[in-house]
Amino acid sequence: MTLLCTICARGGSKGVVGKNSRDLLGKPLLAWTIEQARQTGLFEAIAFSSDSDLLLETALKAGADIAVKRPDAMATDTAPKLPAIRHCLEQAMARTGTTPDIFVDLDVTSPLRLPSDITGVVELLQQSGARNVITGAPAHRSPYFNLVEARADGTVGLSKVADPPIMRRQDAPRCFDMNASIYAWRVAAFLENPAVFYPDTRLFEMPEERSADIDSNLDFMLVELLLRKRLESTEIKP
């Protein structure tokens, strides 16, 4: 079975300026994700998409196989990510001359994942027969029990009301926070209808300590701390 990996990262970032190439324990942030993809041994090619020539050059030096220049229209602050992922996938398919059965998209801002998380997602996709698999960690709040949303009139209420009402958190269905770390799709399904959620979407559970997503300087410091502790505990030098 043929697999491709896509990694998409814009040059601009308002939350953490220059975060995708920012140094994280001796290497650019984006390099951690490329190396994790490489370590799985799953992919025929790893394609990196960006509007930034600097990021593309950095990605190739870090081990990416294909650099895909993203159109400016797909690189604005308001541009959705799915079109950029599709563009990267199609470019990778054209350059490798292959149509993979499955492709995996990895987010640069989630460097705490392990290669085994990536292989676990692919195994779940293969075994379940689903169109795609996403990743998430157990949610801190349940929409059935203690997560509320604001109404237009200023009042609040539970985000999701069960019938009959759920009185104990333990009785509520399990809920997860999407961690934006790993997405895997069957290529045919994605090209026909690019989406994150299908009727048969599955979730691969990851622990909280591997689910941090960098969106602020505080997030970056937290990831750096957790990654340093991991490296120290396994005696791996950055």
UniProtKB/TrEMBL annotation:
Q: Which UniProt keywords apply?
A: Nucleotidyltransferase, Transferase
Q: Kindly list the GO molecular function terms attached to this UniProt entry.
A: N-acylneuraminate cytidylyltransferase activity
Give a single Pfam family match. CTP_transf_3
Q: Could you tell me which CDD domains the record lists for this protein? A: CMP-NeuAc_Synthase (cd02513)
State the Gene3D superfamilies in the record. Answer: Spore Coat Polysaccharide Biosynthesis Protein SpsA, Chain A
Q: Which domain of life is it from?
A: Bacteria
Put simply, this protein is called N-acylneuraminate cytidylyltransferase/CMP-N,N'-diacetyllegionaminic acid synthase
The record lists the organism as: Bradyrhizobium canariense
Taxonomy of origin reads: Bacteria, Pseudomonadati, Pseudomonadota, Alphaproteobacteria, Hyphomicrobiales
